[in-house]
Amino acid sequence: MTTRLPPDLADAIAAAAPRLGRLGRRFEYFLTIGSTNDVASERATSSDGPSDHEGCVFIAYAQTSGRGRRGRTWFSPPGAGLYVSTILAPSRSRDRERAMLLTTIAAGVALAEGVKEATGLVPSLKWPNDLYVGKRKLAGILAEGAGDSVVLGYGINLLAAAYPPELADRVTALEPELGRAVDRPRVFAETLCALARRYDDLLEGRFDAILDAWRALAPAAQGARVTVGEQTGITAGIDERGALLVRVGERIERIVAGEVVWS
Questions:
Q1: Strand residue runs (E) in the chain
Q2: Calpha distance 207→146 (Å, rounded)
Q3: Which terminus of the chain is more solvent-facing, meaning fewer CB atoms within 10 Å of its CB: N or C?
């Protein structure tokens, strides 16, 4: 069941309102939900039409069926993370095709910038949009088509939690990395503000600004050994459409989807 934003989150959003741009036209808050992406998708494809829901934001205190890329479960215990989805319409961009391809790249940049602004910590990015601190994953992004819209969901680990054994040595959270308490409302507000800025870049066709920022935040995109399917190679950056470039022997492969295993 949806409720009003808690006062601390509402205050942070009110203070950030002039910087939210197209985002935050409406907020829906859930104490517990299956997945914020699911409810966002329902709204985006409702009879009202996608334009009526662009910029709506959905946030949960806990998710019971949170998910990441390739159908993986996103561990979403109560209060331990930010679990957020919003509805975007990159199809309205001057270059619709390229904007759609770069939506997750832009979102990765935005989350890293928002985390830095809120906490001072600078995460690194791994293709296409995961946030890392060292070799441990801090946050993930899931973009899903919903009619003419894109539902963009993100999860950021805020507090240390009793992670499942298969995750315990591969994930991290802001509080243990910072060594101090995390201002959850500020992280929420700053990540939305950063996403609003990068969403404007998408709509206005400022793709080079997005790509340059992503490259600066993604040192592993150059010179790292990766395995994609049955091929192993060395990363060689990303191209203008956001594909990962991997040197395999004497040729360069463009990776646009699939599982990338980093050595």
A1: 2-3, 27-33, 57-63, 81-88, 124-126, 130-133, 136-146, 149-157, 222-228, 231-238, 244-248, 251-255, 260-262
A2: 23
A3: N
Q: Which CATH class is domain 221-262?
A: mainly beta
Alpha-carbon separation of residue 235 from 37, 109, 157, 174 (angstroms): 31, 19, 27, 28
pTM above 0.85, yes or no: yes
| Residue 71 contacts residue 100 (beta carbons within 8 Å) | no
How far apart (Å, rounded) are the C-alpha atoms in residues 200 and 197?
5
| Of 107, 66, 98, 90, residue with least CA distance to 191 | 107
Q: 2-217: which CATH architecture?
A: 2-Layer Sandwich (3.30)
Domain ranges of the chain: 2-217, 221-262
Stretch 184-190: mean pLDDT, rounded? 98
What amino acid occupies position 235?
A: T
Same fold, 2-217 and 221-262: no
Residue 263 CB burial class (10 angstroms; 0-12, 13-18, ≥19): exposed
State the Cα–Cα distance between residues 110 and 95, nearest whole angstrom. 20
